[in-house]
C-alpha cells in the first residue's frame, strides 16, 4: 500500500506524518475490504439467485431476525470504530501536546496572508522559516474570520480563530520548501492565501534570524518599500502595473484624485496613503469592497514610511 499512499499524499516530512499515514492506510484498507464484501456479495447473490425462465418461484418463510447475524454486523463495526477512535485519539494528543523545548512562534492570520513573529523579535510574512530536527510550537490567532493552517507534508492542520488562541506543533525531518495553505474559505482572496514553510539546518536558521533582525538597514525608503510590498503580501491584492486586483493598483495613484465609495473624492497624498495602510476602512476606493485588513500592528513606523515612498516612486 505504500505506493498508493505516496500517490495519494505528498511525502511526509515530519515526525508525526508516519503515524497519521498509518491510520489513514488502515481506514482505507478496511473500507476496501468491507466494500468488496458488501458489493461483491450483493453481485454474487444477484447472479446465483436470479430468476430463470419458466422457473417456479418459491418464497421463503418470514424471518423475524437472525441473532447470530445481528451480533456479527454489530460487533465487527464496533471493534473497527473502537480501534480507529483510540488510534486517532493517541495521534491527536501527540499532535496537540508540544514538547517543552519547542521553539514558540506566534502566527497571525488575516485576509489574506500569514504573519509569523519569532521570539527574537523577527517578523516575517507568508514564509515560515524553521530548523530541521527541532520541535516548533505555533500559537495561532486570527484578526478577522476563521482561517485554517494546513501544511500537507507535515500532516498538520489546525483552525485559526478570532479572539482566541489555537496551538499546533511539528518537527520537520527534512530540509526543503513546503506549501502552506489556508484550508478554510475566508473570502474573495482565499485562494491566494498561500505561504511557504522553509526548513533549513540549525546554523542556517541562526544566520537567518541574525540577518532578518537588521532587515532594511542600509536601504533607502523606496528600496525597503519594494521589498515590503512582496514580503508583507501587498502583492496579493495590489498590482504595480495598473491592473486592478482585489484592491486598486499602486501605479500612478500618488498625487491623483481618488473617488470613494461614499461618493466623495480625496487627493492621494502621503496622509491618505498612511491612513489607507493603518485604517483601510476609513476611505474605500469606488468599485472595491472594504476587505483590506489593518497593518497597524504589523508594520513599524519606518516600514509605513517605506511603503509610502515606494508607492510614490511608481509615478503620479
TrEMBL record:
Annotated GO MF terms: copper ion binding; cytochrome-c oxidase activity; heme binding; oxidoreductase activity
Entries under CDD domains matching the protein: CuRO_HCO_II_like_2 (cd13915)
GO CC list: plasma membrane
All copies of domain Cytochrome oxidase subunit II transmembrane region profile, residue ranges: 1-99
Record keyword Iron present: yes
InterPro entries listed in its UniProt record: CcO_II, CcO_II-like_C, Copper_CuA, Cupredoxin, Cyt_c-like_dom, Cyt_c-like_dom_sf, Cyt_c_oxidase_su2, Cyt_c_oxidase_su2_TM_dom
SUPFAM superfamilies to which the protein is assigned, alphabetical: Cupredoxins, Cytochrome c, Cytochrome c oxidase subunit II-like, transmembrane region
Residue ranges of every copy of the Cytochrome c domain listed in the record: 220-315
Ranges that cross the membrane: 23-49, 70-89
Matching PROSITE patterns: COX2, COX2_CUA, COX2_TM, CYTC
EC number(s) recorded for this UniProt protein: 7.1.1.9
Protein name: Cytochrome c oxidase subunit 2
Amino acid at each position: 500500500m505504500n505506493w498508493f499512499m505516496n500517490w495519494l499524499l505528498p511525502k511526509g516530512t515530519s515526525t508525526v506524518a508516519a503515524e497519521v499515514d498509518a491510520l489513514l492506510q488502515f481506514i482505507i484498507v478496511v473500507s476496501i475490504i468491507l466494500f468488496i464484501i458488501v458489493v461483491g456479495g450483493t453481485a454474487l447473490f444477484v447472479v446465483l439467485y436470479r430468476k430463470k425462465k419458466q422457473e417456479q418461484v418459491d418464497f421463503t418463510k418470514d424471518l423475524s431476525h437472525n441473532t447470530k447475524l445481528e451480533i456479527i454486523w454489530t460487533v465487527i463495526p464496533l471493534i473497527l470504530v473502537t480501534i480507529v477512535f483510540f488510534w486517532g485519539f493517541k495521534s491527536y494528543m501527540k499532535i496537540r501536546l508540544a514538547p517543552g523545548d519547542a521553539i514558540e512562534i506566534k502566527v497571525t492570520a488575516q485576509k489574506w496572508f500569514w504573519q509569523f513573529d519569532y521570539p527574537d523579535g523577527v517578523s516575517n510574512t507568508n514564509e515560515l522559516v524553521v530548523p530541521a530536527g527541532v520541535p516548533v510550537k505555533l500559537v495561532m490567532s486570527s484578526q478577522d474570520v476563521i482561517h485554517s493552517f494546513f501544511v500537507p507534508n507535515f500532516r498538520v492542520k489546525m483552525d485559526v480563530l478570532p479572539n482566541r488562541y489555537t496551538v499546533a506543533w511539528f518537527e520537520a525531518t527534512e530540509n526543503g520548501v513546503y506549501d502552506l495553505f489556508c484550508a478554510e474559505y475566508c473570502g474573495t482572496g482565499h485562494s491566494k492565501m498561500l505561504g511557504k514553510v522553509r526548513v533549513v539546518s540549525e546554523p542556517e536558521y541562526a544566520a537567518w534570524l541574525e540577518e532578518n533582525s537588521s532587515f532594511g538597514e542600509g536601504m533607502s525608503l523606496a528600496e525597503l518599500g519594494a521589498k515590503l510590498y512582496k514580503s508583507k503580501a501587498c502583492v496579493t491584492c495590489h498590482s504595480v502595473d495598473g491592473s486592478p486586483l482585489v484592491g486598486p493598483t499602486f501605479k500612478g495613484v500618488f498625487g491623483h484624485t481618488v473617488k470613494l465609495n461614499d461618493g466623495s473624492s480625496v487627493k492621494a497624498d502621503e496622509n491618505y496613503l498612511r491612513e489607507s495602510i493603518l485604517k483601510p476602512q476609513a476611505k474605500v476606493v469606488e468599485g472595491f469592497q472594504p476587505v483590506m485588513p489593518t497593518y497597524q500592528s504589523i508594520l513599524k513606523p519606518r516600514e509605513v514610511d517605506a511603503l509610502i515612498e515606494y508607492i510614490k516612486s511608481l509615478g503620479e
